[in-house]
Specification:
Blueprint: H1 20-50, H2 54-57, E1 63-66, E2 75-80, E3 83-89, H3 92-98, H4 101-104, E4 133-136, E5 148-150, E6 165-167, E7 174-175, E8 196-200, E9 203-206
Antiparallel strand pairs: 1-9, 2-3, 3-4, 5-6, 6-7, 8-9
Length: 214
């Protein structure tokens, strides 16, 4: 390390050549300068850590999701306001199930009457703007677990009335391919449909409704 050289008032750079009182003042000043520089350098990452990141600043805003490569029967996950959002591209078979009277009788709220669970434009049999695509927040309305995607029909563990959908492994709640809750399970309401609008046919903006407001 390069030694710090501080001249005195006479121009001398050697503290040992100075009187004791003057030498003490010079050394004290040098220590303060070096210490101050160290504090300033150490404070830079601390100050940076207090500044909000791009991710934090954008946490409350809309999020765009491009699903151009999503195949029928597949879904993708994006994050919005710190929560997961699933986008499912439903098959023709999935869509037919959602309007089947035999299936509807197994649901608590098949007509989406609980208004807080979806925007007005998603109060339909498919709970979506476009029937083919489902956009929902996969957080169980019982105790907040994340359900699993179960597209299999009538599996042994879920019974013959299961036409595919979402199953919560925490306490057994079941939801169909529109996020509507089954009867006789712990979850009281359907899964939440967030505000969303389509910017282009294969890109959806989550957090903004069709009128362009959050």
């Amino acid at each position: 390390m390069t030694e710090l050289s501080i001249p005195d008032a006479t121009g001398s750079e050697n503290p040992e050549a100075l009187p004791d009182a003057t030498r003490r003042k010079v050394l004290t000043a040098a220590t303060a300068i070096v210490g101050g520089a160290g504090v300033a350098a150490a404070s830079i990452p601390f100050i940076a850590s207090m500044m909000p990141s791009e991710r934090a600043r954008a946490a409350g805003g809309p999020v765009d999701a491009n699903f151009a490569r999503l195949e029928p029967g597949e879904q993708l996950t994006v994050e919005w306001r710190g929560r997961p959002v699933w986008i499912l591209r439903r098959t023709e078979a999935m869509l037919k199930t959602l309007e089947d009277p035999g299936h509807l009788k197994n649901l608590v709220d098949p007509d989406s009457k609980v208004r807080s669970q979806q925007p007005a434009y998603a109060r339909n049999a498919f709970r979506s703007v476009k029937p083919e695509y489902l956009v929902l927040v996969p957080i169980c309305t019982h105790l907040g677990c994340v359900p699993t995607f179960r597209p299999d029909v009538a599996p042994r563990d879920l019974g013959p009335d299961w036409h595919g959908g979402y199953f919560c492994p925490c306490h057994g709640s079941k939801f169909d391919f529109a996020g509507r809750v089954y009867r006789n399970v712990p979850a009281p309401t359907n899964l939440v449909i967030p505000p969303h609008r389509y910017v282009i046919p294969t890109l959806v903006r989550i957090g903004e409704d069709p009128r362009g407001t959050a």
